[in-house]
Amino acid sequence: MGSTFHHDTMLSMYEQIAVHAAEMEDAADAGDWDTVTALERECAILVARLRAEDTSVPLEPRQRERKTLLLTQILRSDAYVRSVAQPVMDALQHQIADARRGSQAHQAYGRMARF
Fold first, then answer.
1. Secondary structure letter of residue 30 according to DSSP
2. What average pLDDT does range 74-98 have in this prediction?
3. Spatial contact of 87 and 35, defined as CB atoms under 8 Å apart
4. What value, to the nearest 5°, has the Cα angle with vertex 77 and ends 76 and 83?
5. d(CA 39, CA 80)
6. With 60 as the cut, is the pLDDT of residue 39 above it?
7. In this model, does residue 69 exceed pLDDT 60?
8. Alpha carbons 61 and 78: distance in angstroms, whole number
9. Range with the lowest mean pLDDT among 4-8, 15-19, 67-71, 100-104?
10. Contact predicate 7/59, CB 8 Å
11. Following CA atoms 70, 51, 21, 32 in sequence, which dihedral angle do they give, to the nearest 10 degrees?
């Protein structure tokens, strides 16, 4: 793309990211973490494409406003998904730690039972 990258294309990509981010909110609310992860990968691809393009030409005021609005929406969605995901992540960490402690206890006491 390089020099043929247009601001409309860039804004379209931000719009796609914003749509995916909103879909991630719905998926997180439903506890559909596979969908959240798939949408996150799609967003990462779009972000990588945006970073690879030459965006040094200044935006028109309306385009700049649109980009700012989209970035704000994306950041809000991201914060929301993180707030929903954090308690789930904490619970998983506790389950993993409990399972690890149980396994270690079984190994320790299992050896003692042989004597």
1. T
2. 86
3. no
4. 90
5. 15
6. yes
7. yes
8. 26
9. 100-104
10. yes
11. 180
**Token pair for residue 110?**
């299992």
- Count the neighbouring beta carbons within 10 Å of the beta carbon of residue 80: 16
CA–CA gap between residue 96 and residue 1 (Å, rounded): 45
- For residues 83 and 38, the answer to whether their CB atoms sit within 8 Å is no
Q: Which two tokens stand for residue 25?
A: 């909110």
Listed in sequence order, the residues at least 6 apart from 73 whose beta carbon sits closer than 8 Å to its beta carbon are 18, 21, 22
> How many CB atoms lie under 10 A from the CB of residue 42?
15
Q: What own/partner pairs with CB < 8 Å and gap ≥ 24 does 15-23 have?
A: 15/70, 16/42, 16/46, 17/43, 17/46, 17/47, 17/70, 17/74, 18/70, 18/73, 18/74, 18/77, 20/46, 21/73, 21/74, 21/77, 21/78, 21/81, 22/73, 22/77
Indicate if the pLDDT at residue 4 is higher than 90.
Answer: no
Q: What are φ and ψ of residue 3, in 5° steps?
A: -75, -15
